[in-house]
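Model it.
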Amino acid sequence: MNRVAIITGASRGIGAATAKLLASRGYAVCVNFRSRVEQAEAVVAEIVASGGKALAFQADVSVEKEVAALFDATEQTFGPVTELVNNVGVLFHQCRLVDMDVERFARIMTTNVTSCFLCCREAMRRMPDGGAIVNVSSLAARTGSPFEYTDYAASKAAMDTLTKGLSAEAAERNIRVNGVRPGFIHTDIHADGGEPGRVERLTPSIPLRRGGQPEEVAQAIAWLLSEESSYVTGSLLDIAGGRK
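Modeled.
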């Protein structure tokens, strides 16, 4: 079967690492991005230079019609989508919940949760029988990320619940739905939150005494998409160096 994967938010970090890894394993990949066109095109160029198949497609996946366009473009280029990685996510500067405004909370939920819902729904409508979805959550869904990102944590907990519910609905069509919950990973998202060195600050709290790399998360995602995990669905895999 021709393996065709959409990875949302794939211009950098975990999404880019996942796109490159899947392409190296023979998947045709759609590198979705919202605004980082140069970075997305660089990911595609690297994949193509290595002999892989890739397409960069701009879409805000929290908007229904743009999600449909994303799937249309991927299908027209590579054929039916067989795998989906919901990786897109956003966070804002660290603060306590009491200081958050409703606009911030709504944007977090729209970007992180609505996008996951829309892409999952579109995948379920279009996937042939059999396939796999991986939702990229966060360890924050369990910890609550107090004093920093309680809104982000809440959005990721919602993604976990969506993963669990959809996995049961999708099982009869042999579509597996799982999630990964990265801990402290060396990506640019920490700079978005106002503390580029956050992983280094928190390293003493990690049993393995180091932050993770995007490629390590990508390896777990690739496993969950592969036939090697054919009996795994509805699972949430922590990738956090032993941190609870």
